[in-house]
Amino acid sequence: MIDKRSPVPIYYQIEEHIKKMIDTHQLKPGDAIPSERELTEAFQVSRMTVRQAITDLVNAGLLIRKKGKGTFVAEPKIEQPLQGLTSFTEDMQRRGMKAGAKILRFSKIPSDESIAQKLDIRTGAAIYEIKRIRFADAEPMALERTYLPAELVQGLTADIFEQSLYAYIENVLHYRIAHADQVIEATTAGHDEIEHLNMAPGSPVLRIHRLTFLENGQPLEWVDSAYRGDRYKFVISLKRD
Ligand code: 16G
């Protein structure tokens, strides 16, 4: 399985070998992979070579190193389609997972200039500010800060955000959510993500900004969220016209 005369570097051949075992389910999420020593003996290569292969797979998110315990096969990342304006709750339901939320902040405050501009309200007008952790089953996936114009969505309470905001907007307030502008960029975990998403300092985070509009063109929400880079990937199918 490892060809030492091949021009393909040996560490790369080991990576491909482990990847294949994951793809073919010989190694499943949560399984421990053999120790460096065992792999060194099995492949008859240096420990450095084995370590390089494993480090690459850890960096690619396919394996996880747990201090003092060993190296394990990672859970596959959640694939989030980029088409369609959906809520976190709907996304989880579609995957057969349970959406959860933990509210860290719920307050009604005067908007600063920057949020006011985005929500197209005057500076100082009341807004709701909600900070919550979003869970897929019991696993924390994202940290979300949501800002809504208080005049538009009167009577909001914290428990609405433990369930689905979009369900409340559509089924109780009977507004039609129409479209959104969204930006995704790569960053690393800050203090908040390290604390609330159980991430190690420096871990990758996908930061997403969403400005959502109602059918009449009025901005409904400005959302600043951070998704775990080790658990999420975004997919889209493209058509050339
Ligand atoms: C998603 C949206 C967020 C929206 C929330 C409503 C992104 C990046 N963000 O998390 O803008 O407020 O869904 O979810 O997709 P809910 O209806 O489950 O409360």
Structure description:
With 241 residues, the chain is an alpha+beta fold. The protein folds into two domains: 64 residues, Arc Repressor Mutant, subunit A (Orthogonal Bundle), CATH 1.10.10; 158 residues, Chorismate lyase (3-Layer(aba) Sandwich), CATH 3.40.1410. It is built from eight helices and ten strands. It has a six-stranded antiparallel beta sheet with strand order 4-5-6-9-8-7. Strands 1-2 form a two-stranded antiparallel sheet. Strands 3-10 form a two-stranded parallel ribbon. Helix 1 crosses helix 3 and helix 2 crosses helix 3. The longest helix has 14 residues. The protein is elongated. The model has no long low-confidence stretch (mean pLDDT 95). The structure holds 2-acetamido-2-deoxy-6-O-phosphono-alpha-D-glucopyranose. The site of 2-acetamido-2-deoxy-6-O-phosphono-alpha-D-glucopyranose (16G) has 16 residues, from helix 4, strand 6, helix 7, strand 8 and strand 9.
- What's the number of helices? 8
The CATH superfamily label of the largest domain reads Chorismate lyase-like
Q: What topology, given as strand order, has the largest sheet?
A: 4-5-6-9-8-7
- How far apart lie the N and C ends? 44 Å
CATH class of the largest domain: Alpha Beta
Ligands in the model, by name, code or SMILES, are: 2-acetamido-2-deoxy-6-O-phosphono-alpha-D-glucopyranose
Domain count? 2
The fold-level CATH name of the largest domain is Chorismate lyase
The helix fraction, in percent, is: 25-40%
Global geometry: elongated
